[in-house]
Amino acid sequence: MSQAAEVEGRLYVRGQRCRYSPATPQQIMKAAREVVDKQMPRGTSFKDPKTAMEYFREKLAGLEREVFGAVFLDTRHRLIEWAELFHGTIDGAEVHPREVVRKALSCNAAAVIVGHNHPSGDVEPSAADRAVTVRLKQALGLVDIRLLDHVIVGGTSTLTLAERGWV
Questions:
Q1: For the packed helices 49-60 and 25-39, what is the interaxial angle rounded to 10 degrees?
Q2: Secondary structure letter of residue 64 according to DSSP
Q3: What is the pLDDT of residue 46?
Q4: Measured between alpha carbons, how far is 93 from 12 in angstroms, rounded to an integer?
Q5: Strand 146-154 relative to strand 111-117: parallel, antiparallel, unpaired?
Q6: Within 10 Å of residue 160's Cβ, how many Cβ atoms?
């Protein structure tokens, strides 16, 4: 992990040769995601929907391409693991329910919250978003794992399909 320093209002990162250079937006976002991992470690409770919205916003906001990820939870809805499962283009990512189920089983998860970003900034769910949510709920249900929510991140805004009654 690179170290960062702020000099005269600019953020710098230290490279392998211990030289500092101005940080790129991607390096800043990577560092922010590492901070989220430290602030919400294994065992963090996801009983409050706001926790999931904040977590996914911190993980997925500002990405240039669509990324689909999931938090895998125990029976008390505490974090077991976060995983970025699928990477896509500027306007879509192909999601395979069997891979989500496989990962959930390998984590011994009792529940899952999925989420993805919309690089356009619009959080309104597409027909494909709703359809994949239904397929995920069905696939996970076959192995007694609950799909609790599907969070969509657009810019700094978030929307959950559970709030709309679609999960």
A1: 150
A2: S
A3: 92
A4: 32
A5: parallel
A6: 22
